[in-house]
Records
---
Amino acid sequence: MRVPVSWLSEFVTVPENVSAEHVHAALVKVGLEEEDVHGGEITGPVVVGQVLEFIPEVQNNGKTINWCHVDVGPSPDSVTGRDIRGIVCGAHNFVVGDKVVVSLPGAVLPGPFPIAARKTYGHVSDGMIASARELGLGEEHDGILRLVSLGLDPEPGTDALALLGLSDFAVEVNVTPDRGYALSMRGIAREYSHSTGAAFRDPVAKVTVLDVSADNVFPVVVSDSAPIRGRDAVSVFETRVVRGIDATLPTPPWMVARLALAGVRSISLPVDITNYVMFELGQPTHGYDLTTLTGGITVRRAQVGETLTTLDGQVRKLHAEDLLITDDSGPIGLAGVMGGASTEITTTTTDVLIEAANFDPVSIARAARRHKLPSEASKRFERGVDPAIAVAAASRVAGLLVELAGGTADTLGSSYSHVGAPVPIDLPHGYAAGLIGVDYTANEIESSLTEIGATIEEIVGGLRVTPPSWRPDLTERAGLVEEIARIVGYDRIPSILPDAPAGRGLTRVQRLRRSAAQALAASGLTEVLAYPFITPAMNARFGSAASVDGGVVATIALANPLDSESATLRRSLLPGLLDIARRNLSRGLTDLALFEIGTTFRPETGVRYGSGPLPVGNARPDVATLGALESSIPPQPWHVAGLFAGDSLSKQPASPAVASGLADAVAAAHQLAASVGATLMVSQGSHQSLHPGRTAELFVGTVSVGFAGELLPVIADDLDLPRVVALWEIDLDILTAVAPLDVVPTPISAFPAATQDLSLVIADTESAGEVLRTIIEGAGALLENARLVDVYRGPGLQAGSSSLTFALRFRADDRTLTAAEATEAKMAAVALATTRHGAALRE
């Protein structure tokens, strides 16, 4: 919201020569965020001049310039007593005798554009005759600004900055969505008063209300056959009529200047007046050319197939939820958003119907977003407009049309009001102090609430507070306490944080998830974040570790996707990692080690998700609605996945490069499991998108938690990736569930270890991972560590068999193991492996 300071000073006492810093500081004190300062760029001598004569001169380049003599005011030093300046001007839209705006040497126009006497076209131009655009009053730049076009006839030498309102400046503040009343000079002035204690003068109280005749009523029908979520579409609808206006009259310069500082360009006098009143009071209004209306006005929802041509010339297909202003000819406006072209006020308009209404914020917000048509009016309606000022706003517009456009107020009009009584809020004694931590006195609480416009009633145990009509955001006691803290001063709130109650902080799962991310990053992987939207084909490729229904997997489809091709939610993190890898490779980054932690979307087959209407956004849903919403959300387990491509170790002197591969993916998975206190076991696995024989299934105990492998070369080629891309993915929810509840550090033993190797011959159909599990189980408590170190196939072994060599480490907590004890434990493992897998000890 941009706040012209001269406009602000009409409604609240502001110090003379006030600075932007002071106004900003005052508004920040009551919770309005400082944004910027506008205006005030024009400095120096800018005066009214009168063209005495001009001589057209054709230049060598074919351009014609005018050598002008301009009277810029009295001068006691000249013979004639007048200050006559010679000025070169390239415009041709003026005549001798015209009053113009002259920027004299030393002035600075917006840009900044300093003015100085300079030689040009064979003359010394002692100033510049300015256009409206050069003065910041509009976009017109085809000629200079003639003051007669503004209805002005000042004396030469008059200060043009004061005359045109160009000495003013505006401060800009950010208004939060819950404080729509501050999108007006009325609201900002009230806030400035709260901050400084300056006297506030309500502009509504100054408006002379234009009454309508009971015998001369303009027909208005409010017909909302389907109120959205129990809310009335229209609570107030006021109309007033002004006849005989001259729509061609210029907008006064002071109004043009104020609107420009507020961020709105001048369009025409009637339109400028409606905009001016909207910024002044916060109530959007709209003007219709009364002669173009067919019958009366009906406010209703759109019907199937209806269209509307809005003021911007666009033909818009209407939605059944759109709220319309219609007459007997059909739609003539999108309520609260933009009017229609068929009833637009033009230069030939003489009779105007003024509308000031109050619409349902949700309906207006949705219509503006649906049609991608945000407007100053919709911005205010969707935040809540004071329903009590519609009559004053319509009357204010009518008064300005009478004063500035030469119109005559008519008794024709109408009034519709369906505003419910304000809902009081009970504020118990001590509640404010308990919530904020400040011991506010009873006088501070009552005076603060009274200052914001609330009415107070003493009740048993506290106060009954009725919020003012312009504060629809005050619906609960916490909001009242926020107002007390704001008005009394945020500086009263202590800056020391209270001690957190016991039992708070990160949950076990959150701690483990954070540990996993830290461990992977510390081991050299780079964390990335991918979009959760992927193509159905990629979901089918990576959505499950095993093909489901021939590669088709249950997925969640988006109703309104950002990209029509990426229209499903991911079941796996791998497609996002592959896309990121492809982007990095295209930019020359060939050695990649990436990981992502995020949610996946795993719908259950046959269950419909996301169905049912969404609740209204400004009210808390009931328990049944919340339950229905929860059931409409698919399971979203947390996963962690990684990708390796290129070299894991770059080429160095006397050392070749080491390529990434399956071993890196498995090692990263082990590192992840260790970070949450779990131990991974690896077995032969399968995945429809990973290389057969180069794919591992990952277990914690007997629970499968994920997989690792190398991407199928044909898929890698299709995605423009290297031939070898190692991938892994783990269900983090399952991993943290099976991980130990408490990770207890293993003490370092003071006794030496006994190491032995074990080579077993097994059939190729047996899984090395399962054999390792069996060895660990069979060796018993003395086995401290076991790992596969070699696989041999070749001479000396029967066809279809392999030799697996395991490195075993034994240790006892209370003694030094003998070789016999270690051998006994090893042979127990061999016996169990023989029983389960047909393993034979290799001699």
---
Amino acid sequence: MSDLPAGPPTAPPDPVPIALETHAPSQAGGRVRLTRRKLQFFDRVKVLLTIAVIFGFLVAKKHADIPIMSWGDAFEDQLRAKSWLLVLAGVEIVRQIHYLISEHWTRYHQFWMNKVWGRWDRFVQRRNPWLRYRVGRVCKAVATVAIVAVILGWRWDLPPITALVEAPARLWDTLFSPVQGLPLLPYMVFIVGITLIQFIALFWFLSKGGVDTYMPEEITTRFDDVWGQDHVLDRVRENIVFLERPDELEQRGGHVPGGILLWGPPGTGKTLMAEAVAGETGRPYVFVDPGAFTNMFMGVGILKVKGLFRRLRKLALRYGGVIVFFDEADALGSRGGAVAGYAPPAGHDPVHGASCHGGTYLSARAQWQVFESSLASAHHAEPERVGGIRKIIMGGMGGGRGGQGELQMLLTELSGLKKPRGFFNRRVRQFLTMPPKPPPKYRILIMMATNMPDSLDPALLRPGRLDRIYKVGYPSKAGRRRTYEGYFDRIQHALTPQQIDKLATITPYATGATIKDLVNESLIVAMRRGRNFVTWPDVIEAKKLKMVGPGENVDYVERERHSVAVHEACHAVMAYRVQKGHDIDIATIEKGADFLGFVAPIPIEERFTEWRSTYESDVLVSLASLAGERLFFDNDNSSGVSGDLASATRVAVAMEAYWGMGSTIASHVGGMARDAGTNVVVREPNLLHGEMGERVEQRLTRLFDQATAILQENRFEVLAVAHALETFKTITGDDIAAIINGYPGPLVDGRAYHEDAFLSMAEEYHRSALTAHRSQGRIDVPLPVFEPTIVMAAGVTPNHWRWRTPHDV
């Protein structure tokens, strides 16, 4: 631990004129001692005893050197030769008399505390802490050299200055004097030194790295660069005020908050916010790599923590404050229990087969419910059933009580910023019965970020270590719009404010990182198309690429293309009819890595609660694929509905079991929990068993029948949307609305689908596809196409179409 200076104590208030009482209430409600604390008898005489022991040793040595000298003569001789010991004893007696008076006389003690030492302390405290630290180190070095010179002069019977000058040569001669022809001492010192150097060098090199220090001039990030998190920035600004002007809070009896925890989803701007704090304050910024304290040798991480805080204290004294940021704080502040990660399985599902893109047509909260359910069951070890309860071990290599003391050292350092430091301050002053000086107030703002706050040790989160905990969540629509504007201003684009506002609406859970990536992908799409500025179609294409990735550009066989188109058309028509709070963003049958097609909705407005009717519409859209396939393919259906059924079931279970949207009131709040004793995840039995499963099945059956009726009523619209998907592969929600309502869309002219000839040709094509499906053959009837019939009349646009097949002449 570095021997850093201890700042002077704050001068006590002026003495209160109380004649008999020795204590008075302080402003904070405590008691202020007006006299000095009484010393124990040993503390009062221990220095005199030490001087007496030293003097007795000198007398005994003198008598041993000259045996003919009596003890009395040896005592008198040492008394004359070592008179400085008497001086020290006299000074100590005077000091103890001073303490004794201060223990009984209030005014005497207050005079020395306020008028003498208080003035000196106030004078010293007005100096810069860094200057006091450097001057203190110089004074201690000079005092050490002086003491060594006096001791050497006494030992060699020389003046102290002469002894100090001759010390290197005499020390060299002493160490390298031959012992029986062999310099044994240097050899032993060399062997021990080599061994120590090996260990010291190894641990020194291992303890380096993982901590980066940025000086104020290197940080250019400001609060203006952080978009979409204004409510958190307002609170963080308060900490900056306390860091720069701490007296405003401390003079009122408060204390400066020392730590901030920023938690929330990845990419929401936690690291950027910490950089902005350092940039706004003009203080050094220390970035701690999350893996810096993971080492293969026990103790190296502890050295890193100690070294880190030693550096922070020095920087705080030199620059008046410092900001330290622990990214991914759960890597260091974890309880030690293993935390399982989650990565969605990619590629073809060997159990359920390929399907449409698993629930993109659901509302945002329903998608989150499905995701959480998948997260709870994905990538766990084989569950072990103990006493009727499923226990899932979420462990792996390196499990158990991890950290090897790094967390404990971090907690100690966070609590130890107010402990007296330095050997002289803690040991010498204690020996002299003097109270240690309190340390200087290190202005260290500790910031941590994590997306797993539940894994942090509660001892780390208590006030005094991390005083303020802020959630940096997904930005609101206004925040997303401001973020889009900020990133689009950095490139050339042709987007209107209305289009940027719509983009903020259709990306409800976009973070700062995903927004930046989408803008960059839009620019790449524009460059691929031969332009150096971004347009709205570029943004939509980039959004699609980021949502599902590029299509595989494969061709379906005709009967499978038609079945996939009908599947997605059922989703699209059902979503259009029942999901009133959403518009359709895009519908496609282009095959991707793990889907055959999908329909994605966008919210019309930003909402923070969902109702039973909303979730039932989500279930209707999920069940539309199964209902539609059985309706259009003679009660047959594909394995592509598996993902839809899983989504519908999970939402229905949540409605019955948790959200109060079923036939019962009780909530199954148990869900999943971590067993504190065994550090395993305990899951309740499957909710689909028993009465709960029957209620869920009844709800799904009722909604399935309702979905079948809706699709039967809108059969024409399903066939029309399916035809558009087979023709264009990908269409927008505006195109779907145009097809259903019969007006021109961006890509598809919906008026053609309302011609009398279309329905009969669409039904004929579907009957041929159904026959091919049964026989696993080819469709005999080509896909119908249409072309406009031009009507040449003044002011009249083409509004008649002729449907034909490729075999028409």
---
Amino acid sequence: MVSADASGDAPAPNAPLAPAADATPMIAQYLEIKSANADSLLFYRMGDFYEMFFDDAAVASRALGIALTKRGKYGGEDIPMCGVPVHAADDYLQRLIAQGFRVAVCEQTEDPADAKKRGPKSVVRRDVVRLVTPGTLTEESLLDARAHNFLTALFRAPQSGEAICALASIDISTGELIAASVRLSDLPGELARIKPGEVLVGDDLASDADMRRLIGEAGAALTPCPRAHFDSVRGERMLKERLGVATLDAYGDFTRAELAALAGLLTYVEITQVGRAPLLRPPRKEIAGSLLVIDAATRANLELARSSQGVRSGSLLAAIDRTVTAAGTRELASRIASPSTDIALVNARLDAVTYLVNEPRLRQTLREALKAPDLARALARLALGRGGPRDLGAVRDAIGAAHGLAAHLLRAGEAFGLPRELMGIAERLAAAPSGTAQSLAAALAEELPVNARDGGFIRAGFNADLDGHRKLRDGSRQVIAGLQATYADATGVKGLKVRHNNVLGYFVEVTALHAGTLTSPPHVETFIHRQTMANAVRFSTAELAELEARITSAADRALALELDVFTTLIAEVLNEEQSLSAASAGLAELDHFAGLAELAAEKNYVRPVIDGSLVFAVEEARHPMVEQNLRRGQATGFIGNDCKLCDESRDGGTRVLVVTGPNMAGKSTFLRQNALLVVLAQAGSFVPAKAAHIGIVDRLFSRVGAADDLARGRSTFMVEMVETASILNQATARSFVVLDEIGRGTATFDGLSIAWAALEYLHEVNRSRVLFATHYHELTALAEKLAHAANATVEVKEWRDEIVFLYRVVPGAADRSYGIHVAKLAGLPGPVLARAGEVLRELEKADGRPKPADLADDLPLFQATKQPAGLSEPSALEQALTNLNPDAMTPKEALEALYRLKTLLESEA
């Protein structure tokens, strides 16, 4: 039985009921199946309903808002029961999965007629055919067509030094498989990038409170699995078997930890799919450093996939999405979530977009032809036995679209040449199996039902035997009408009718007045009396009984023949799995490239220069979301701004730009838009600017705004400091850092001190490219003292006690914050504004703080080589202690570590 877990994780199992003496055969069968699936709600198939009993029924009725009834007795008490119709099961499954439940779907695996042959009280055989969990969904109604739904297995490698986590992720709705290793400190950002629906961990790791919190913050369901499932040898063997290879060398150099994660992942898929093998694309090994690292806070601050309200609308992805297929949107989302650091790869992708920007007619032709079905998800459903005729139709139509698109691309290539990325796509599309498409076109009807059991999906003329059974089935009305006319003529009873009901089947009916005609010679031997009613008498005939049997068997036989053809077609499709998977990936990539080219042409984006330098130089850059959200008809459009960091003309140039100016003037927009340009450029997109030169970035940090984290007992200022600490501890010379209003959450002098020290540290130690917005005007003095820092401010104009925001960033520093002016724009009452002005004037008179220039002259610069007290480099012994991970060590490893610590202690004594 199942009960909801207060922690918000998957529901916790209850102990199954012990069999009782009064258990009926059906209840006994239910309890046996339930005991094997105690951690899941059991959808027990009974005719046209999935029924739930006992605690499952009580839990499901509350979760779904459906009536709780009862059925029979068990142990002397009523059995709670509720159920959902089979035809509407997907809707109820979606609601249960969203609430964290797992569902075991138990189907009838035997025909009721066969069960009766075993005895009148025999129960139809049933068994669980799949476990439905957040990470194993394949149904269209349960998935977001525009987003991947990853199931991720996480394995923490036992080793000295910083803990390494291996992750293996699969989207069983498309077959995409990924493996990677990350530092434990980067795990939250990695989970935010993958955004799995469900995370698998060993039962030893599941008890780690920090790990449970990290997974919960990623919005994923946590599922503990036996530690024995995470075995690297098992993972290597399973992967080789699934891929049909003797070695994995062609797919990448997988670590033992990654193979262990793959073992846990594939074992769980095998269990939940009850032996059915999902579609599996060749695994992709993500090499450390190959992707732009973006932590979870930065992803949220920049609103890459979701806005601050948690919805797609208002995000970067929504602003730039011009794809025409769901698969293309998923591809775009993946590239925005995982920008590359490979300069050659980024430029190759930009070549493809550039080509399509410069060929508008070809681009429009491709976008029209791209409106094809979702081949990847259709293939996945067919592989798992959950596909229907429409999925076969999707394969047929997608192959046709692939061939048409390949022809367009190859013709363009003959005339002008194609970039490498587009040529690769054309070759994959052209290789889609035409023979399979021809088979599907010949067999499938134009109008296709959702479910194969509905029949009617095989084209007339494809199978002569099927056509014959259909003719008898569909022409039964004419046959019966002809027989009725024959009987009426033979008996002379013009009112004779041939009718049908579920009890008697087909029968002859006459009024009581004419019954004597049929019971007298010569008709008495033909018509057999069946039933006498008040006003009518009913008869049967041998001919009618034979015809009824033929009509009934014709319908059953026609459906059986269709299902045989259906099975044959699926086998043919799955036999071409590799080429079809490659074609589906090509369709998604082409759609995403064409969509980015359409965006660039529509919004006047430019191709960025991407190289290995440390330059960040953009002209008239714009914020992609804000620009599109400006009201139509507004007098002025978005005002672009330049940003130049690391200009080589100035001895290494400006690395740190201190940005000042009043609230509402556009500082945060300026900061965010430049960070978004990094994401777009390294994802292979053009950028909203007049010109852009971006040296490749390894890590992107954005601390813009903060809020309380009440669940973890953190104040706004604490959240701000945690995010700032993460930046200062991880940023490198190739990183891009955006910081907005550091130190504002505490007392003025405390905040100024922290902001001052952080700014110096970023300049002297991290040496990153930094945009640093602040209201502390004292910090502007640092630009004169730090060799690679400069000031910028957002222009405003004062006019008759009013301020006008110009939204233009220019060199220089602001000398005022204009807070009272902004308060006036917000609508504060006049007396409050007047009093605030008085208080401000008095405070400015009494302010004894030193001037910015005095501070800069009096304070020595932060020296990276001379750490302040308490910040000295840790000793070898301290470092060794820090690197220990006792929970992940075997007894032997712990003993060896103890001896090493003793040796280090003696050497330092």
